[in-house]
Amino acid sequence: MLRSWGKRRTTARWALAAGIAGIAAAGAPQASRAAESNQVKIAVFDFELDDRSAAGGMIGADAIDVENLKKATEEARQRLAASGRYTLVETGTVAGQPISAGGIQGCNGCEAAFARKLGADQSFYGVFARVSRTEYTLQIIVRDAQTGAILSNAFSGLRMGANYAWPRAVTSMLDNKILQ
Known about the structure:
This protein is α/β, with parallel strands linked by helices. The chain has helices at residues 2-38, 63-82, 110-117, 166-178, and strands spanning 40-44, 48-51, 86-89, 122-132, 135-144, 150-160. Strand 5 (135-144) and strand 6 (150-160) form a beta hairpin. Helix 2 runs parallel beside helix 4 (166-178). It starts with a helix and ends with a helix.
């Protein structure tokens, strides 16, 4: 008799645990949707190069620069999405839009208007400024898409390093200044 009571108690515990797990699993999609609705929609535009070096006017961006700018952009997109705070908005549809000759960095906040048209809450873009072949700076600007107000203006001097370090610089700036 004592033995059957112990079995019933164990069975009851398992049933209770299974019921709780079922309730939790049923609520998980709702919690996931609630978390998504709290995420900020952000349009991450391609990083740009501003070559201020002595040869900047004569030598344009090379294939390695272009590749590392793409890697830096992808790193930013991945880090922002992985943070759980942001939902990425595709920016490819504005790629053909007229932007000043200086790119997004020279259009005086036009990226916020583009982000708004795409349905984003915020815009994000970054500029690597080449001071010399081994000295760079990085600036990342986040704007409110509705008002154009700057929400974050993070700047970091990379100093010594080559263009292959650009994605690591983006990671560092996001982790230490923007996603804190």
